[in-house]
Amino acid sequence: MSSTSHRSDLEERRGIVTNLLNLRDQGLLTTGVKRTVAASQGCTVRTVENWIANADQHDGVYTPRPRRRTQLTAEMRGELAIWCANRHSAYEALRERGEIDVTYSQFTRLVARDLAPGHLASFKEGTDGLYAYELRNSRGRGLRNQAWEADHLDSKVSVRLGNEIVQPQITHVDDASTNAICGLAITPHRPSSDAVLATLRDAVLRDADHGPFGGIPALIRVDRGSEFIGKAAGQAMNSLGIQRVIVRKPWQKGTVEAINGACTSTLLSGMRGWSGKPTSKGRPARYDGPVEDLLTWEQFVAKVLRWRTEWNTEHTMPALGGRTPLQAWQDDLTPLRDISRTALHRYTLQTDRPFHVVHPGGIRWKNADYYTDERWLRDCIGSHVRLRYTPHHRRTLQVYRAADDHYLGEVYLKDTATPEQKRAVVRGNRRVADRAKRDRERGERMLTKRYAATTEVTPAQPLDNLTYQEAEKELARLGITLPDETPEHLPDPTSSWGTTSSAPRQTEHPARPAHNLPAPTRSWGSDPSAPPPQATHPDGQETAS
To answer: Which portions of the sequence form the region Disordered (predicted)?
Structure first.
């Protein structure tokens, strides 16, 4: 019975007793009235009389005696925390120490009564388990561009890219008010800061190529991925005046997580080569079909962009009142902050230092030369310029005048490597990485000290699997020389060394008293250090041995 129902029953009983006392004062309390009350309350007449007697003892107010309850002690709570909410193990440990005097069934009822499910989950899974039982208020939808949310989505779809098989990653930025996908970028590998900047540019721009969604938002929620909290993304958001809010839990950016789930269930799961399907053995699914049946990179990108258009313009949602994200966006008349393409390009690029000097051979940057055939570069020889670039993109640089930050043009990397050289470098780096991996695994095996398996209580027996020759070979490979264990040659003694000290005199160092040892017996045997006994003749003369 809950505490609320118990209080309501108590108040009802007090009202009944008060009415009975009033009837008694008026002389109208009869046995028939007591029987009627007892029948309505499901008790006996004697119980009703006890209620009246209890009220007489407490100044006319029915006050029941509090029920004796066993409480969950601090030792019980601590033992539950030690055993990660395992009730049986905690009870056995308390019973062995004599710190509990209830049965196991009573102990489980105490735990269920005094500890909330979230409290028990925190014993088992820590704060993550507690978060699952927390009350979360739904965040208001707000206005358009009031808050954006960004995230990466692993497609888990095998796609053909040239002669390789890749799994593309999707980076997208969504409006939390209208559920519109404002910006999207796709990379064939794990995205980095350049993918975040490309997505941000695609989300902010509003024109015929990018659609009506965009503008500069007030804030953007991101997780703790290095691509979102890095220097490049932070510099771009600060330049645009966007507040970056770093969240720690997926439900704190629920809009983008919901769109991730919708994209997976309505698009990616139906593609050939999707590895997210469950298997009977519990391992991730693998595509075993012919490679020719897989989507190409261009086909995959086209399908994702088409799905984005359908989501924004055709997909209706109950949370939006049966409207599409486009309709919800157009119905919201909140003013938008726009920015020109040139200014956006400037703010979403990274710069390294205040200026560079233009030489006759071009612009020197990171041990490479950049050049262009346009006239403006020849006119800027000897002047100071500022370089902006996209992270991880060394092919081109954007050049600005250092004095007034005026855009001049684009320069290109000179003496680029040939395709054969690139392939050779990739193969060489792969061989170096494989060799380093093998050396690391070998070193870990040699550092691990192994012991023999045992089935009984015995000291652990180490397994010495390294021979003397193997140790010498490994030390030679590592360039380690052990110190010589032979003692150093001592010089010959001279007269200055003095003579060996004589035995201490009795007066200076008195000898200790001898121990009283028992006399030797025949069972002791002969002394091995004593000379062998001489054979004797019967007449008493010694004979030669």
So the answer is: 481-545
CA atoms lying within 13 Å on the CB side of residue 138:
6
pLDDT in tens, 307-362: 999 999 999 999 899 999 999 999 999 999 998 888 887 777 877 778 889 888 88
Phi (first) and psi of residue 233, to 5 degrees:
-65, -40
Contact 151, 164 (CB under 8 A): no
Contact 220, 182 (CB under 8 A): no
pTM above 0.70, yes or no: no
Please state, in angstroms and rounded to a whole number, the distance separating the CA atoms of residues 352 and 385.
12
**312 burial type by CB count under 10 A (0-12 exposed, 13-18 middle, 19+ buried):** buried
Contact 393, 410 (CB under 8 A): no
Residue 410 · residue 363 · CB < 8 Å: no
Find tokens 């399907």 and name the residue.
Answer: 277
3-state secondary structure of 195: helix
Work out the angle at residue 356's Cα, subtended by the Cα atoms of residues 352 and 361, and round it to the nearest 5 degrees: 125
Taking each helix axis from N to C end, the angle separating 45-57 and 31-41, rounded to the nearest 10 degrees, works out to: 100
Is the dihedral angle over the CA atoms 407, 408, 410, 411 positive or is it negative?
negative
The two three-digit tokens of residue 513, written as one number: 């008293």
